[in-house]
Amino acid sequence: MKNALITLIACTTLAACSSSSNTPITSSNLQDITIPFSAVAGDTAITCDATLTPVGSAAGSASILNFKFYVHNVILNGDDGNDYAVTLTDSDWQDEGVALLDFNDLSTDPDPCGGAIRETNTELTGTVNADADVSFEGITFSIGVPSDLNHIDISTFRDGSVLNIISMYWAWQSGHKHMRLDVDPLEGALANWNFHLGTTGCSGGSETEPELVTCLRSNIPTISLDTYRQGSDSIEFDYAQLVADTDITTTSAPASGCMSGPTDTTDCNEVFLKLGLDHSTGNAHASTMQSAFSVQ
Q1: In whole angstroms, what is the distance from residue 151 CA to residue 205 CA?
Q2: Which of 46, 141, 233, 292 might form a disulfide with 74, Cβ 3.0–4.6 angstroms?
Q3: How many structural domains are present in the chain?
Q4: Could you tell me if 129 and 84 are in contact, meaning their C-beta atoms sit under 8 angstroms apart?
Q5: Runs of H (alpha helix) within the chain
Q6: For the residues of 108-156, what is the DSSP string, one character each?
């Protein structure tokens, strides 16, 4: 695996920005972009019928129950020294600049994973406003739903929108589950060990004034992979890396696994670190780089 670094980025709009001055770049050309993703646990591809082993600090085994996460704010680094925002194309898997990556290839509707064959989504598609001779090496993206969309009642989004999925939503004030990774440990007494990454410590606002919600911990990782080459590489998420220092055969109260709660240090601290997050603040960790995502 190539080195994966996590950084904060200043450019958050959907217009391409200069890496040095944030000056919008204009071009008469739009390049079509496809960014492939994969999900594994070590050497095992994530599928509903796969046995993931070894996973967790107890080196146990597990099968998946639910495996999805949102992505937004995708930036490609141009070989001309500029950064280019990817405008995600609206589709069944992308809406309002947010994409859902979904690795559940079976479903018994709505959960858990198993039963009938269903569609998955393992790529981002969109455009960048860049001349045809610009190529890209390096990518940055954020996991989750951005705050301006996170606290909107999901019933206001169109039917079929990836932002209108009940199983990926807590409530209007706390918002969406940025990442939902549920597994069934095959050792121990637990029926499931769940990782639900979401924004916490939220207050204020209302369903009609969601913009007034404030939250103490955004819990939105920003992933930067500086060796990613557009058109030849893919991005891999490794669940075994995520839980490498966490025992998924046991759990502490009140949740089975990590639900992002600020007091759930036993189950959350290490998985947050693997995403480059400080569990206590919800921000990028000062000294620990993420290790769950890499370039392939």
Answers
A1: 9
A2: 141
A3: 1
A4: yes
A5: 147-150, 239-242, 265-274
A6: SSSSSS-SEE---B-EEEEEEE--TT--EEEEEEEES--HHHHTS-GGG
Torsion angle of the four alpha carbons 42, 43, 48, 49, in this order, in degrees rounded to the nearest 10: -130
Pair of tokens at residue 260: 């992002």
Q: Does the predicted model carry a pTM greater than 0.70?
A: yes
Residue 21 included in any domain: no
Measured in residues, the chain has a length of: 296
The span from the CA of 241 to the CA of 55, in Å, is 8
Query: What is the DSSP pairing of strand 30-41 with strand 235-238?
Result: parallel
CB atoms within 10 A of CB 53: 17
Residue 128 lies in a domain: yes
Residue 19 lies in a domain: no
Report yes or no on 14 lying in a domain. no
Q: Which residues contact 274 (CB under 8 A, 6 or more apart)?
A: 241, 242, 243, 244, 245, 290, 291, 292
Domain containing 137 equals 30-295
